[in-house]
Amino acid sequence: MDKIINTNKLFPDLKPEVLDSCIHCGLCLPACPTYLSDLNENHSPRGRIHLIKAWFENRLEYSDKLADSLDTCLMCLGCETACPSGVHYEEIINNGKIALTNYKSPFLRIFSRLVFKNILPNYFILKLNYYFLWIWQFIKGKEFIDLMLKFFQPVNLPGIVKPIAKLAQLQMFLPPIANNLVFQFKPSSINGKKSLNFFHGCVMELFFHDINQSTLNILTNNDFDYLIPQQTCCGALALHAGEIDIAKDLAMRNIAYFGLTVNPIVVSGSGCAAMLKHYDQLFDESDGEIFNQAKEFSNRVVDITQIIAQIDQCKFKLKQKIRIGYHAACHLAHAQKIHQEPIDFFEKLQAQNPDFIEFVAIQDAEFCCGSAGIYNLLHTDSSLAILERKMQFIRDANLDLVVTSNPGCLLQLQAGLTLFNVDVKVVHICELLDTLINQSNN
Ligand code: SF4
Ligand code: SF4
Predict the structure, then answer these.
(1) What does pTM read for this prediction?
(2) Closest atom of ligand 2 relative to the 74 alpha carbon
(3) Using an 8 Å Cβ cutoff, are 195 and 224 in contact?
(4) Which is the closest atom of ligand 1 to the Cα of 82?
(5) Does residue 370 sit in helix, strand or coil?
(6) For residue 163, what are the contacts with CB-CB under 8 A and spacing of at least 6?
(7) Which CATH number fits domain 2-103: 1.10.1060.10, 3.90.1570.10, 3.50.50.60, 1.10.10.10?
(8) C-alpha distances out from residue 74 to 204, 215, 376, Å
(9) d(CA 360, CA 357)
(10) How far is the first Cα of the chain from the last one, in angstroms, to the nearest whole number?
(11) What's the gap in Å between 26 CA and the centre of ligand 1?
(12) Under a CB-based contact definition with an 8 Å cutoff, are residues 258 and 200 in contact?
């Protein structure tokens, strides 16, 4: 037990009672996308908890099978919502993933640490990558790689081709970029109105600047003033990959930046909001003052859906009636436990606009879409199988619009709509509300 946990002293220790809280009832299994895909107990929450416990208690050696079990977990936390015993699965899998980094290939480790530490938190480098991706789309890189692979199929390709071929898949999950190259915020001044700080995220700002702008428009429309303090990547992707020192470093930087202000911190991307709300879990008493600062910081974080749910006046004039469905991002529903607020908002929209808006429930709306950070790139086949199920339910609901709240879901759902030929538009909840306000004003 000591061996694994002590190699990761950077993270609060996993207490035996957390591991023992699972009573193996299996009620979480139907909520687990990876278990439903292949009915393999090693790919279920119960199986993963069992394996991590055995590993941490030195009853099980590290093996590729163990790594596969943990690696394939989407960290969607659907199992936490389903579990009647209140098992803290997130804490368990985080510890498992941190321990796993000790066994990763040095090349993969160096590369992923470079991305988490030097690329995501650095807007300049991030933007350069963004332009590269834009060129990649423009020159139709996917088609070129596909052709190359087809041409060389009979030949035994060298290992280096594999990561290059992954780039072909990357394009599948990207939005069209061309109209989104300007980064421009106009912070309001604090003048006695309800005041907030805005956290714009890194990937969210890169790919979905317009959604961040919509978020700010909604805040302004509803009498909020906002500031945009200096900030960096929230660290969610680093934590999901088990790179805890990088996640903690990014957390400490954000805590320091936002520590200069006292107002609530509003976030437009559910993945970032979930991570920021959990900064307190990265530290414990042994870390000293930062533990209290992290708790204070986490208590200030508000997901934008919590603000939208409080907007009373939602009456709009539209040209035609639209059918709206809601896909609940795992990081909103399961990580932040925000289930009802978005639904209340959509029901309010329908009640106040009966001639224009119909809210339609999507089956298994809280079930993961298969995005899960970079899971769709690392485990593309499994991700697509999960996505196909989601697309079936979206198709069955016969919608005009599917609404969600997380950048990863937006990219994944957009890819799914194209791949599986579903004629529905996907939008962020802020984009929807901002568009409704604008259309009514025109
Ligand atoms: S995680 Fe919860 S629901 Fe799943 S087997 Fe354990 S106790 Fe049961
Ligand atoms: S986090 Fe998601 S994928 Fe992982 S065990 Fe839980 S339900 Fe399954």
Answers:
(1) 0.86
(2) 3
(3) yes
(4) 3
(5) coil
(6) none
(7) 1.10.1060.10
(8) 20, 28, 9
(9) 10
(10) 65
(11) 5
(12) no
